[in-house]
Amino acid sequence: MTAAWIEHKQAQLDQDEIDAAETDTALVSSGWGLTELQHVDLFITRLWMRILVWQLALSQGLLQSAPPQNSHEGFSMHFPAQRLSTQLRNVVLRLERVESIGLHGSGILQKLFEITSTVADVLALPIGPGEEQDAEARVEDFLFLVTFLLSFDRIHQNQREYLKEKLSALQREQSGFHNLATYNPDGWCDQQQ
């Protein structure tokens, strides 16, 4: 496992994202295309694969708080929270039928859980000077994802409790964010839409 391999995999996922968007546009214009759920499943799977590649880089000590500008953003310790949580939130907001994800099967929910859990780990890292506003936006994305996941009955109880523990730890460690400090995971029905 080398930095070059990690960079290559992240670049492949970048290109796959571009190719998928172009293919989808071409299919839709010809009267075909993926269903909304198929599109979301592929998108979430791609984000999940990015998390796996990022975790491999983490396990090899290849991540940095501020990676060199000429390297892929996937080498940043903050990558899951800076990019992936925002992308995931945006795709969820575009869904016409959010409940269809819960009906799709446990695989997609498991991937969502793993992505959200990783974002929580990243948010627990210290915030650098001048990064408060960006950190606030990442916390908003995380709260949205927690709310979204907890809305599904098919999320296992141990996963619910795990997310709540992560949330409690973040509330203790990052108490400066109003929405984080006042968020109640048991009152998720009233939260963030």
Count of alpha/pi helices: 8
Number of domains: 1
What is the succession of H and E elements? HHHHHHHH
Rounded radius of gyration (Å): 17 Å
- Helix/strand/pairing class, anyone? mainly alpha
Shape: globular
Mean pLDDT: 82
Distance between the termini: 41 Å
Total E-strand runs: 0
Low-confidence stretches are 188-193
Q: What fraction strand?
A: under 5%
Largest sheet, strands/sense/barrel? none
Helix content: 55-70%
Describe this structure in words.
The protein has 193 residues and is an all-alpha fold. It contains eight helices and no strands. Helix 2 packs antiparallel against helix 3 (79-93). The radius of gyration is 17 Å and the shape is globular. The model is unreliable at 188-193 (pLDDT under 50). Keywords: Nucleus.
Could you write a compact summary of the structure shown?
The chain is an all-alpha fold and 193 residues long.
Helices and strands, with pairings:
Blueprint: H1 3-29, H2 36-59, H3 79-93, H4 99-104, H5 106-123, H6 132-150, H7 157-173, H8 178-182
Helix pairs in contact: 1-2, 2-3, 2-5, 3-5, 3-6, 5-6, 5-7
InterPro entries: Carb_Metab_Trans_Reg
Keywords: Nucleus
